[in-house]
Structure formats: structure tokens, C-alpha cells
Design brief:
Blueprint: E1 18-20, E2 28-29, E3 41-43, E4 51-52, E5 64-66, E6 87-89, E7 110-112
Parallel strand pairs: 1-3, 2-4, 3-5, 5-6, 6-7
Keywords: Leucine-rich repeat, Repeat
GO cellular component, one term: cytoplasm
Pfam families: LRR_1 (PF00560)
Length: about 120
């Protein structure tokens, strides 16, 4: 699929537990992502992401976030609210330093930041 934006009616998907948006042309993750209150796994690898809405911090149920092969140079500070997060992959982005919000992720078991700027 070649999605360029989130589906407009995605707020109806609050009961989704796994969202896989790999291999599209998404430039950002909009604020509506905060409505996915039951989400445990978010995979948005191989897109063109340059931004993530701070509303992602509302999804406190997240366990896995995969953001490899995008254009991210930073994460929103609200990532620090994802205290159940166990796996975060940011490989092949444009990060110049480890985002400070990662320090708050005390349950994090796997962190991949290979091949960043």
C-alpha cells in the first residue's frame, strides 16, 4: 500500500492493539494517534516520517515502537510517558543524539539507534 496520510476515520479504531504501517509514504504521525488507547505495538518503519505528534504520549499501553528507516531528527518529549515500553527501534533515522525522554523508559529492554546522523 502507498498511504501518504493516516486514514481520516482512524479515531474509530481505539480497540486496535497492533498497527502496522510499514513501507508507505507517511510524513508524520498525527494527533489522532492518541485515540488508539489500546495500542500495544506500533510499526511505522520504511516511511518518510519527519514528525510524530506529542499525542503519542497518551498511548500508555504501548510495549513496542518500531520507527526504523525514516527521517526523524527528534522524538516528542511525551515519549517519556510510555512507561510500559519495552522495545524501541530508531535505526536509520537522522538523530544526532539519544533523545532525553528515553531516560524515563524504565522498562525498556531493547533500544536500537544504529545508523543515525
Amino acid at each position: 500500500m502507498n498511504l501518504r496520510s493516516f486514514p481520516e476515520d482512524s479515531e474509530r479504531l481505539a480497540s486496535v492493539t497492533s498497527l502496522d504501517l510499514k513501507g508507505n509514504h507517511l510524513r508524520g504521525i498525527p494527533g489522532v494517534i492518541g485515540n488508539f488507547s489500546g495500542l500495544k505495538e506500533l510499526k511505522v518503519e520504511n516511511n518518510e516520517l519527519i514528525s510524530i505528534s506529542p499525542m503519542i504520549g497518551n498511548i500508555v499501553s504501548l510495549l513496542v515502537v518500531m520507527l526504523d528507516n525514516n527521517l526523524l531528527s527528534e522524538l516528542p518529549a511525551t515519549f517519556g510517558s510510555l512507561t510500559l515500553l519495552q522495545r524501541l527501534s530508531l535505526m536509520d533515522n537522522q538523530l544526532s543524539e539519544l533523545p532525553s525522554c528515553v531516560k524515563s523508559l524504565t522498562r525498556l529492554r531493547r533500544l536500537n539507534v544504529e545508523n543515525n546522523s
